[in-house]
């Protein structure tokens, strides 16, 4: 779903009547109770999405993706991440008991990675309550619940590793960092405290390897921010956030000396959106923002948080440091642009009729490939030469070097044969495609989505 520590537990011998084993059992039992209570209100979200072509000139692709969410109202109001539903052709909400309902997007926040989906059920749904993320402390126990890698509902335990993390994703960055597992597909799921209340919305993971998974550094949007945004999304009359179209970063002492800003504190402009008010007002990278409406702030996030609260259409009086002196510049605040992909009705219909792309590329199984991937000489089929990150194929554990030897009940030997059988199954209206993949560890069947 686009940026840190060791915990040592020492045994305490002051109360000999409570052994380490008994304490461990008590903590485990508490987590089990929380997980059992919270899980019915957590949902898996399966989506068909439009994904831009991987090569220039190719058409867009229809792909299957997964995410998570949680119910906050028994009428069917579900909170998830904006990036989970961005570009969705359809939204299918799957409950822990296996029930499936069609989801309808109610709203998505342009300034924070939060969206609200609605389902129509014939009975009241289990819900989760918002908790108090402001009361969290480093070391507090938390659970993350969701649908990692499309595997199905999963619960992970951990602690709050840090607070107020800035991953340079939004103006409001104030993320909760945790070592409770957050993998692709967990996005939009809840982080709950020992009471089972939502204290965060699982959103991001950090891994220096682009294709890597969870390494113990995950991030969740604090409930205090998420709850406010959800309230606004459910109230269309609420004022829209303001926007100037600038990317700011903190002005370090080294940058200040390089630009001869003197002792001024503020935020340096790293980029200016050509469609935004800042560009129209003449702002440019290297300008240093030292005050807004007379208010001098100390860091970039403080300035951006101020900008989003200025009413749309009102002027923002900016004090800028440029070429050795301060300048006053006025820029009219615009409405924060919606960063979601919006598809026309015609595009939706066209995309929904396209055969889906599971995110893998096929190639002939050559002698060179057999040596490279240790493919047995008796194995025949089409080589999987690459697998796209965050694709259905990747979620199913398919990797480069796997060999497709059967599609449905038909043996295949070339990429063309794989495509031919797949097309027939799609034209027949099959919802899934059975594929036998082999590698040096053996053979297994996987099912790829077709409709």
Could you describe the 3D structure shown?
The chain is α+β, with helices and mostly antiparallel strands and 451 residues long. It has 3 domains: 35-239, Beta Barrel (Thrombin, subunit H); 242-335, Roll (Pdz3 Domain), CATH 2.30.42.10; 355-449, Pdz3 Domain. It has 10 helices and 26 strands. The chain has helices at residues 20-38, 82-85, 223-233, 253-258, 277-280, 300-308, 345-352, 367-373, 392-395, 415-427; strands at residues 42-51, 61-73, 77-80, 88-94, 100-102, 104-108, 115-118, 141-146, 154-165, 175-178, 190-192, 198-205, 218-222, 242-243, 246-250, 267-272, 288-292, 315-322, 325-332, 334-335, 360-364, 382-387, 403-407, 410-411, 432-439, 442-449. Strands 5-4-1-2-3-7-6 form a 7-stranded antiparallel beta sheet. A 6-stranded antiparallel barrel has the order 8-9-10-13-12-11. Strands 21, 22, 23, 24, 25 and 26 form a 6-stranded antiparallel beta sheet that branches. It starts with 19 loop residues before the first helix and ends with a strand. The model is unreliable at 1-27 (pLDDT under 50).
Residue-averaged pLDDT? 84
- Rg is 25 Å
Low-confidence stretches: 1-27
Known CATH architecture of the largest domain = Beta Barrel
Briefly note the structural class of the backbone. alpha+beta
User: Ends: how far apart?
Assistant: 23 Å
CATH class of the largest domain: Mainly Beta
As an assembly, this protein is single chain
| Lateral arrangement of strands in the main beta sheet | 5-4-1-2-3-7-6
- Total strands: 26
Strand count, sense and barrel status of the largest sheet are:
7 strands, antiparallel
Q: Looking at the structure, what is the overall shape? A: globular
Content of β-strand: 25-35%
Classify the fold: give the CATH topology of the largest domain. Answer: Thrombin, subunit H
Fraction of residues in helices?
Answer: 10-25%
**Count of the separate structural domains:** 3
What's the tally of helices?
Answer: 10
